Amino acid sequence: MADQYNTNEEKILKDSHTKEIDLINRDPKQINEDVVKVDFEDVIAEPDGTHSMDGVWKASYTTFTVSKYWCYRVLSAIFGIPVALLWGFCFACISFCHIWAVMPCIKSYLIETQCLSRIYSLCIHTFCDPLFEALGKIFSSVRVALRKEV
């Protein structure tokens, strides 16, 4: 029974680091849907009455599309892994700081302020509540009548 539990635990740990990635849909959460999805028509457009020759327009489209495609592929081949390493390191540092510094500080602050909030609440209920109750009773007999005079 214990061996089966250890095997399942090891499998879960292994799967979290070696899970298969989808090579077809590389933006499943669509975080880059509106930002970097740039096509020829989004950048270059000729209004009515100002058209270049059809051959120039077709060549421009092909040049833009192919150069964007290959430039991205070459840049990602050269810099993709080093930049992924840097971002992995950056997010690991952020996670480390959040887990080991930020959350303990916040928790400590909440514990300390809980004590102060009880003292503050006690002072308000002791001094302000009777004052405002008395003022409420004093002004409870005041009647306001609005008249519109023309």
UniProtKB/TrEMBL annotation:
Top-level taxon of origin: Eukaryota
Biological process terms in GO annotation: caveola assembly; cell differentiation; regulation of cytosolic calcium ion concentration; regulation of membrane potential
GO cellular component: caveola; focal adhesion; Golgi membrane; sarcolemma
Transmembrane regions: 74-101
GO molecular function: molecular adaptor activity; transmembrane transporter binding
Localization terms from the record: Cell membrane, Sarcolemma; Cell membrane; Golgi apparatus membrane; Membrane, Caveola
Its membrane topology: Peripheral membrane protein
Function statement: May act as a scaffolding protein within caveolar membranes. Interacts directly with G-protein alpha subunits and can functionally regulate their activity. May also regulate voltage-gated potassium channels. Plays a role in the sarcolemma repair mechanism of both skeletal muscle and cardiomyocytes that permits rapid resealing of membranes disrupted by mechanical stress. Mediates the recruitment of CAVIN2 and CAVIN3 proteins to the caveolae.
Name of the protein: Caveolin
Organism annotation: Sinocyclocheilus rhinocerous
Taxonomic placement: Eukaryota, Metazoa, Chordata, Craniata, Vertebrata
